[in-house]
Amino acid sequence: MTQINTVFAIEFVGDVLVLTLQGDSTGFRYSDIHSETNAVIRTIDRRNAQHLVINFKNVEIVGSIMISAIIKLARKSTAKKGHAAFCCTSDTMREVMQSMNLTRLWPCFDSQEEAIKSFESKSE
């Protein structure tokens, strides 16, 4: 079941939490991004989500506020001994992520399915 909030749509696929961005930070109030990011962190803790996929299919590019939120969420996942990955980025967004070295920390895949599949060997 997918829970659609203002900033993120949230879905569990097994032990993987999938967050789908619903737009760029310019379309949201800072307080919405902040509160939903904190709610996702509580969800990771409460549901003991092992892995995190952040899906960019609904956005061309995101600003610094959203990037900060994404980094915070990915770090939370890896701090809990899980893994994080990105998927469905535009070419422009992928270039931004590469220039920030984010894809060295968390891989980027063409599809959500590939991102989820990448965790299979890491769960064992």
Explain what this protein looks like in three dimensions.
The protein is α/β, with parallel strands linked by helices. The protein has helices at 30-47, 64-79, 91-99, 102-105, 112-118; strands spanning 3-4, 8-13, 16-21, 51-55, 83-87, 108-109. The protein has a single domain (3-122), classed as 2-Layer Sandwich (Transcription Regulator spoIIAA). Helix content is 44%, strand content 21%. It has a six-stranded mixed sheet. It is globular.
The rounded Rg comes to 13 Å
N-C termini distance: 26 Å
What number of structural domains do the residues give?
Answer: 1
Shape: globular
Strand content: 15-25%
Biggest beta-sheet profile = 6 strands, mixed
Which architecture per CATH? 2-Layer Sandwich
Mean pLDDT: 90
Order of helices and strands: EEEHEHEHHEH
CATH class: Alpha Beta
CATH superfamily: STAS domain
Number of helices: 5
Strand order, biggest sheet? 1-2-3-4-5-6
- Count of beta strands: 6
- CATH overall fold name: Transcription Regulator spoIIAA
Unreliable stretches, pLDDT < 50, 5 or more residues?
Answer: none
Helix content: 40-55%
- Class of secondary structure makeup: alpha/beta
